[in-house]
Specification:
alpha+beta, 12-stranded antiparallel β-barrel, 290 residues, 13 strands
Length: 290
């Protein structure tokens, strides 16, 4: 904005303030109707207030971070390549408590699928970072049902007591028909909380996610194109089988409201500084839209 425009704007604001000060309004505010979202929000707040903070160790932090990266990557893929019914095998494994792991989707790189690598930053008083990227190299080919993944650059983070997880990723996919790149950005916020039910500890979460897509020149900008909501369930393998599942629903645009992503894991283990989860991620359209 030019200096002249700023001067004009400041003068207009000043004039408006003087007018409001010399001629007070006695108009009554409107009667506000109930907000339709208030009930759901009140329920979420009440559940979190009754709960305790999650107790994730570093192996779980990077493991869950990788799982979230996988479902977000698949959500981005639906923007230009559809929500056709497709299932991918998924293995997420960390090898030690230092916070290093990998997610192998659909067999992994060079086998028709994609491999993501994750690592944790140092523990800080304010929280902990989680970095995720596609396995890279001149001989590495990452695919998701025929669509090439050439970039996943995730800079995610856990809050100090694991109650908040935030993701921020830049994703580049190649259109298999034109060979041109499609650029996306994914951001979400997820609230984790713990409840003990029938003697078993469960970590639940809910969250909202936004998928953005970049336009072309002359002015490059990422515009919001999708909104998703998500629920997840996780339970440690404390002398029993662990459990993990994710339910992801697309909210906007309305034309794609039936799109869903479900992650179900038949085997979940956490112990001795390791995290292992083996299962399936399915992208599909719900028949009833629910």
């Amino acid at each position: 904005m030019s200096n002249l425009s700023l001067v004009r704007l400041s003068a207009a604001v000043l004039a408006l303030g003087l007018a409001a000060g010399t001629a007070p309004s006695y108009a009554q505010p409107p009667e506000f109707p109930p907000n339709p979202a208030a009930g759901a929000l009140d329920g979420i707040v009440a559940e979190e207030r009754l709960s305790t903070a999650p107790t994730f160790n570093p192996a779980e932090q990077v493991g869950l971070c990788l799982v979230e990266s996988v479902v977000s990557l698949l959500a981005s893929r639906t923007e230009d390549f559809g929500c056709d019914d497709t299932s991918y095998s998924l293995a997420v494994v960390t090898t030690d408590n230092a916070g290093v792991g990998a997610a192998v989707i659909g067999g992994g790189a060079n086998a028709g699928g994609t491999t993501l690598e994750g690592s944790l930053g140092p523990q800080r008083a304010i929280g902990r970072a989680c970095f995720v990227s596609e396995v890279d190299g001149v001989n590495q080919v990452n695919l998701l049902n025929g669509v090439r993944v050439i970039e996943y650059d995730g800079n995610h983070g856990w809050s100090r007591r694991n109650a908040i997880f935030n993701s921020d990723a830049r994703i580049t996919l190649i259109d298999p028909q034109t060979g041109s790149p499609d650029f996306y950005r994914e951001v979400n916020i997820k609230d984790y909380f713990k409840r003990v039910i029938d003697g078993r500890a469960w970590e639940f979460d809910w969250g909202l996610e936004e998928i953005k897509k970049r336009n072309s020149s002359p002015f490059i900008f990422y515009y919001p194109v999708q909104k998703w909501t998500e629920l997840s369930w996780y339970s440690h393998s404390d002398g029993q089988d662990g459990a993990l599942r994710i339910r992801k629903h697309k909210i906007k645009p309305n034309s794609a409201f039936s799109c869903r992503i479900n992650a179900d894991f038949a085997e979940v283990f956490n112990g001795s500084g390791e995290f292992e989860a083996f299962g399936t991620v399915r992208v599909f359209q719900s028949e009833n839209g629910g």
